[in-house]
Amino acid sequence: MKRKPSTEATAAWIRLMRVQSRVLDCVEQDLKKAGFPPLAWYDALLELSRAPSGEMRPVELEKQMLIPQYSTSRLIDRLVDEGLAARRECKIDKRGQFVEITEAGRELQKKMWGAYSAAIEKHVGSKLCDADAAKLCGLLDRLGCSCGETQALAARDGAPAR
């Protein structure tokens, strides 16, 4: 028997989608006002910087970022064009390639973190006490978010995972 979601579950879904969209829009605007590229650039550079030896296959980057393949390809093209990443042929599989973060990419990611962390504080941190934020992480964990894992990574790297 297929069950329909409760009114409360549907309301939670709608709020989750709306708040995600609104907060991301606000963060994007704050980065733009600070003179930085879009958040996806930061996310890609962060994932590359966390990878062993600073490189990943494009498909791995796509999985980490949870964006469509065509968006990942265009994003990689932009990062390479700006000198923030480089493509490298896979020596074992000549058809494959790696994307590697450059020193300029590492520097931009570090600079963006200042504006990004301020935006997180402005749009999330200032609205939730730490206990409420922890409670929200617990609720999102139940939906499959793995917030506990991302907190550990953020603490280690001084930067948030999405």
Automatic annotation (TrEMBL):
Highest taxon listed in the record's lineage: Bacteria
Family annotation (InterPro entries): HTH_MarR-typ, MarR/SlyA-like, WH-like_DNA-bd_sf, WH_DNA-bd_sf
Pfam families named in the record: MarR_2
Residue ranges annotated for the HTH marR-type domain, each copy included: 1-145
Signal sequence, start to end: none
GO terms for biological process, alphabetical: response to stress
UniProt cross-references to Gene3D superfamilies, sorted A to Z: Winged helix-like DNA-binding domain superfamily/Winged helix DNA-binding domain
Name of the protein: Transcriptional regulator, MarR family
Organism: Bradyrhizobium erythrophlei
